[in-house]
Amino acid sequence: MSHRPxxxxxxxxxxxxxxxxxxxxxxxxxxxxxxxxxxxxxxVQQGASIASWNYLGYLIGALLALRWHxxxxxxxxxxxxxALHLLSALLQTQxxxxxxxxxxxxxxxxxxxxxxxxxxxxxxxxLARHQRASSSGLVYLGVCVGLIVSSLLVSLSDGxxxxxxxxxxxxxxxxxxxxxxxxxxxxxxxPNETPAGDPATAPSGRLFxxxxxxxxxxxxxxxxxxxxxxxxxxxxxxxxxxxxxxxIDGSWLVVALSTLPSPWLWNRLxxxxxxxxxxxxxxxxxxxxxxxxxLLPGASGILLCAVLVGGTFLGTVLLTQRLARTLHPHQGxxxxxxxIALYGLTQLAAPWLTSLWMGVGGSLHSxxxxxxxxxxxxxxxxxxxxxxx
Length: 389
Known about the structure:
The protein has helices at 8-26, 29-38, 44-67, 71-92, 98-129, 141-157, 168-185, 212-240, 246-259, 262-273, 275-295, 298-310, 313-327, 332-359, 368-382. The chain is mainly α. It folds into two domains: 8-185, MFS general substrate transporter like domains (Growth Hormone, Chain: A, Up-down Bundle), CATH 1.20.1250.20; 212-382, MFS general substrate transporter like domains (Growth Hormone, Chain: A). α1 packs antiparallel against α7. It is globular, with a radius of gyration of 20 Å. It holds the Pfam family MFS_4. This is MFS transporter. InterPro entries: MFS_4, MFS_trans_sf.
């Protein structure tokens, strides 16, 4: 290459698209749900069921991304996925029944799964082409900002909107951001076929081999381990801390703020230590966060969990994606899609297993042992992943 391309516009475009589909699509539902229930649009049980439909859509989207993993396919399907997000977001403002909202959240989850896999994969291929792959993790800053933006949109519009109208701020903000982000990525100078790496050897088309299988098994533990605190930590706070405590309403804000430095921090640690060593550290930190809820009393355990899990789970995602491409550079987008699909499956399974556990008399608090066990599983399998720099 005769020049080093400007990274900032590309990374900003990718971060913007993740902000749109994850912050304004998926995670805006978390602060919206109590208000939708209070407005009489949903019951708590219906709200939980609708969340599951969105998780299922995310899994379907990741599986579709596994099918459409080539650069040419990503170029075709990514704008359609963004269009699906925008359409479902706008229609949510008119959804007056739980069944209609469930169908729209399913569609929104499909769009989320596709974009969350394809946009970072496309950018990682472009960065690798320009020998700048070490910057890939910064794309996930969009998720961090999206958590805070979604919370602010819901808070600032309270008192102005009611019921299905509460979806309008996220829907309207999505329109210009999605358009601008795709316009930038559409300009990337990438060949439609991903290079095969070392031309002296015929690359394997297998997803699973001695190098990648331990990484898949480890990532399964990550999906199951992080989703429990990310789903139930505010409820644990409500059950365990004194009435009026900041953490009853503020535990989600602590999680969101803790995510802000995490992509930069884990990106740097991966460069300095190696992605595999940094990944082991990220699993250990998340494990300590979940154990804090289980072993420390009340507010101290909840606060430590919010900081450690919030500040770590995105690091696990970005490091795993980059390490996977290092193991199999000829099929980076395909590996990324397969990993996200597995992640989506295990994060869908964790709340279901929790409900089964509570159905036989277990407590929500004790269900966090499932998350701790899953993260320990992930840490142990990471020890079997071969070193690659």
